[in-house]
């Protein structure tokens, strides 16, 4: 991810930039920062990045810096990202971009904030539903003498898998990107559904 930073426009809010970068780096995002020194630099840097095939070019500065970067990306396949550091930040407010550092980092990491919200909502609902279904199945099919033990084991295994998944996902994303990491996380529901099919067949044949 290339970040084109205007140090003049962002001088008063440089702390916001560094906090956004900290969040990105902590989540395995590889960064390249290029500072502008005069008018027109941002457009030239963005055009060069687009010519190299950069998937995302981020404008860190005010609305003028954003306009220059956008002009440099015209006609290319590169996406435009924003870290609003100006005084007015008109465009950021118009498109509803979050202004908190972690929100900006999330929008950049997933390229689109509303897409992130949709995925998070669907994922959260799915995980809650899965947990309830597995718990219900345990209470129905397990030896009633050991239901409490089985539920405890399921809960402990779930938290353990979650801890490992979070650590592994960040490491995997650092090497292959977040798109591939999110696809890897989809394996959990797939395996869970596959494991439950024998119980469905058993229920249907009863």
Strand-helix topology:
Blueprint: E1 2-5, H1 14-26, E2 32-35, H2 41-51, E3 56-61, H3 63-73, E4 79-84, H4 90-94, H5 101-110, H6 113-141, H7 147-176, H8 178-185, H9 187-205
Parallel strand pairs: 1-2, 1-3, 3-4
Helix pairs in contact: 1-5, 2-3, 5-6, 6-7, 7-8
Quick take:
This protein is of the alpha/beta class and 206 residues long.
CATH architecture of the largest domain: 3-Layer(aba) Sandwich
- Rg (C-alpha, Å): 23 Å
Largest sheet geometry:
4 strands, parallel
Q: Which residues sit in consecutive blocks of at least 5 with pLDDT less than 50?
A: none
Name the overall outline.
Answer: elongated
Average pLDDT number: 78
Name the CATH superfamily assignment of the largest domain: Probable inorganic polyphosphate/atp-NAD kinase, domain 1
Number of strands: 4
Main-sheet strand order equals: 2-1-3-4
Q: What helical percentage do the residues reach?
A: 55-70%
First and last CA, distance: 56 Å
What is the CATH topology descriptor of the largest domain? Answer: Rossmann fold
CATH class of the largest domain: Alpha Beta
Which structural category do the helix and sheet elements fall into? alpha/beta
